[in-house]
Amino acid sequence: MISIIGAGKIGSASAFNILRFRISDVVLIDVTGDLARGEALDMMQAAPAIEFDGVVKGTNDFSEMEGSEVVVISAGSGRKAGMTRLDLVTMNSKIVRSVVKEVGRYAPECKLMVVTNPVDIMTYIAYKITRHRVLRETESSEWEISLTLCASDLISQQN
User: Fold this and answer.
1) How far apart are CA 98 and CA 82, in angstroms?
2) Is residue 7 part of a domain?
3) How far apart are CA 142 and CA 37, in angstroms?
4) Does residue 149 belong to any structural domain of this protein?
């Protein structure tokens, strides 16, 4: 199972691509539970069109990620007009710290991918807290390739 924390544009697009390529079931987690549930419902309604027969679940309950092999952190704020990189670091570091603690509690053996900006600093924060195998991506196309390779590795380990 792959869990994605953050049901905004990046998290939802990531979840849909996981479904589209039939990689894994997905748990989409967001502090705004209705957003995560709504996105998951939309994806499940689209599932027959993309021939996906798995499950995508939306929730605000971090315990739903328990047992995840991969956790993707996309939660955080985007950079707004007039906002400096330091402002973004300050805002998103609080979010990433709290999310990573939940990952450590419910999915301690997972591979952790961080896509929250600024990616370099957020990845370092995640690594310092968890000491997980933390993967970082700088371009969305690289992230999709890495997630696909990571998921393929998980699938081959199960066979």
Assistant:
1) 26
2) yes
3) 27
4) no
Give CA–CA dist 80/69, Å, rounded. 33
Distance of alpha carbon 58 from its chain centroid, rounded?
Answer: 12
Indicate yes or no: pTM above 0.85. no
Domain presence at residue 21: yes
Q: Is residue 114 part of a domain?
A: yes
Q: Which long-range contacts (CB under 8 A, 24 or more apart) does 136-140 make?
A: 137/113, 140/10
Specify the number of domains making up the chain.
1
Closest CA to 147 of 63, 8, 24: 24
Give residue 155's identity as a one-letter amino acid code.
I
- For the stretch 100-118, pLDDT in tens is 999 989 998 888 898 888 8
Residue type, 89: V
123's tokens = 């990845």
* CATH number for position 43: 3.40.50.720
Peptide bond into 118 cis (omega under 30): yes
Q: CA nearest 151: which of 13, 7, 10, 26?
A: 26
Residue range(s) defining the domain that contains residue 10: 2-140
